[in-house]
Write a structure and sequence with these properties.
Layout lengths: L17 H16 L6 H28 L7 H12 L6 H13 L14 H10 L8 H4 L4 H4 L2 H8 L3 H14 L1 H24 L19 H6 L6 H6 L15 H11 L7 E5 L13 E5 L1
Antiparallel strand pairs: 1-2
Helix pairs in contact: 1-10, 2-3, 2-4, 2-10, 2-13, 3-8, 5-10, 9-10
Length: 295
């Protein structure tokens, strides 16, 4: 029997992805270079863009809207939030969504694109720079993201995802010069990449588990702080379509606050939420009694 044409997991990915590796090396070098150009305005711009790319883009759009369809919004808002996601330089929406859906399907089992069971470094960054991974065109990825692969706008955004940083980079260069580019593009992007990768690595190794799931997902407060709420990962794996990941009052979830804000302005509806049928147990008392409801 012939081997499947597309396989995931460490043993199926061989060699170094040269283009991705060179890009990552360049971004890390230029991120360090930013510290030689300290500028308050440039740093503030980087922080603002970090929120745009990481919160509006990755958390609210790529993850909770596009991957899990945790809520609905207008087409123009979906495309705008998706464009914000391309600023994170984590690939186009089709690539990102397909990768994450495979992760949920095979979480911490053979075929998971980035499980720490195959190495912490692999889960954090190795899977990106090794082999082809999920670096394929929309036709190949349509099996895992058929909804996005039928949408010409998402196909375009996936193909040209890199252009958003070029456009913003040129604007920053014209406005504030080299310091703004180093902080607003290279440092901000590199920091954001590692924050997202910590969800793949750290929240499958360190943290607490409220729910019994078939994977190693944990709730990790400091990863949640870096990713606007994505670090409440055990909650998420127990209730993957819930738009809210921080289920307890002390689990700050800025991505959920963002979605709630859209709802206030009539820009989000059919919001899916995890509805707990009994009081939340302590972190040392795993619970599986929960269901999801539509708000």
């Amino acid at each position: 029997m012939a081997a499947p044409a597309l396989m995931y997991g460490r043993k199926y990915q061989q060699g170094v992805n040269v283009i991705t590796t060179v890009a990552m090396i360049a971004f890390h070098i230029l991120a360090v270079a930013a510290f030689f150009f300290i500028d308050a305005g440039a740093i503030a711009t980087a922080v603002a863009l970090y929120f745009v790319a990481g919160m509006l883009g990755i958390g609210m759009a790529y993850h909770r809207l596009l991957t899990h369809r945790s809520y609905k919004t207008t087409p123009w808002m979906e495309y705008f939030l998706t464009w914000c996601g391309t600023l994170a330089l984590e690939g186009g929406p089709i690539f990102w969504v397909a990768t994450h859906r495979v992760h949920h399907q095979k979480s911490d089992q053979e075929g998971d694109p980035h499980t720490p069971r195959e190495g912490t470094w692999w889960a954090h960054m190795g899977w990106i720079i090794t082999g082809s991974g999920l670096h394929h065109d929309a036709h190949v990825l349509s099996k895992y993201a058929p909804d996005l692969s039928r949408d010409p706008v998402h196909i375009w955004l996936s193909k040209y995802h890199w252009t958003s940083n070029v456009i913003v980079g040129l604007i920053l260069l014209a406005f504030g010069g080299v310091p703004y580019v180093l902080w607003g593009i290279f440092f901000r992007t590199t920091f954001g990449l590692h924050a997202t990768w910590l969800v793949n690595s750290a929240t499958h190794k360190w943290g607490s588990r409220r729910f019994t799931t078939r994977d190693d997902s944990t709730n990790n407060w400091w990863v949640a702080a870096l990713t606007f709420g994505e670090g409440w990962h055990n909650n998420h794996h127990a209730h993957p379509t819930s738009a809210r990941h921080g289920l307890a009052w002390y689990e700050v979830d800025l991505n959920w606050i963002g979605i709630s804000t859209l709802k206030i302005f009539g820009l989000a509806w059919d919001i899916k939420l995890a509805k707990i049928r009994q009081p939340l147990p302590t972190e040392t008392e795993p619970d599986t009694l929960a269901e999801e409801a539509v708000a």
